[in-house]
Amino acid sequence: MLAMRAVSQEIPESLFLIIGRGNAEERLRSLIDELHLSHHVIMKGWLELEKIPAYLKRASVGVVPHFITQHTNNTIPNKLFDYMYFRLPVVASKCIPIARILIQEGCGFTFSSCDELTKSLIELRKSSIRDAYGLRGRNAVISRYNWSQDSMRLNSIVNSIVECHNI
């Protein structure tokens, strides 16, 4: 929320939409009140899956602010690929697999501090940067990060195991 306060001072029309629920929900609501961000932050709560694309179509940036833990350093959230598919540049904490994808595909920024997050969000005010990052992310999902590609890799692995063990 501290980053959003700085962003809202630089970009008065900014709006941060939080979709979903979690352990930090009450703390986030308190911070929104404490930092006077109610005009810049909306917490929608849990939404049915089919309603989320409507929000992503209207968004400018996708944010993945995960804490860096052993778990987040070994998983990739589906929302990353949703953001990329909807041509959203992504700003994410420096979790290893997320950072690898953002850097490899050139479709977003990573951060490890509030200042880095703020700087990235303000940089993405430029539509030319948002458009370029968004297009690269979309192309990456269409060509590499999709179930069709994953199923081919999985089938290949299973076939090699079967052949190796003469099953």
Supply the key terms:
167 residues; mainly alpha; Rossmann fold; 3-stranded parallel β-sheet; two-stranded parallel sheet; 8 helices; elongated
Molecular structure report:
The chain is mainly alpha-helical and 167 residues long. It has one domain (48-164): Glycogen Phosphorylase B (Rossmann fold, 3-Layer(aba) Sandwich), CATH 3.40.50.2000. It is 53% helix and 12% strand. It is built from eight helices and five strands. A three-stranded parallel β-sheet has the order 3-4-5, with helices on both faces. Strands 1-2 form a two-stranded parallel ribbon. The N and C termini lie far apart (55 Å). The mean pLDDT is 93.
Quick structural summary:
This protein has 167 residues and is mainly α.
What do we call the CATH topology?
Rossmann fold
- CATH architecture, by name, is 3-Layer(aba) Sandwich
Helical content class: 40-55%
Number of strands: 5
Describe the sheet with the most strands: 3 strands, parallel
Indicate how many domains the architecture comprises: 1
Number of helices: 8
Secondary-structure element order, N to C: HEHEHEHEHEHHH
CATH superfamily: Glycogen Phosphorylase B
Fraction in beta strands: 5-15%
Q: Which sequence of strands runs across the widest sheet?
A: 3-4-5
Class computed from helices, strands and strand pairing = mainly alpha
Q: How much is the average pLDDT? A: 93
Q: Ranges with pLDDT <50 over ≥5 residues? A: none
The CATH class turns out to be: Alpha Beta
Give the end-to-end Cα distance, rounded to a whole number of Å.
55 Å
Outline: elongated
What oligomeric arrangement do these chains adopt?
single chain
Q: Compute the gyration radius: what is it?
A: 18 Å
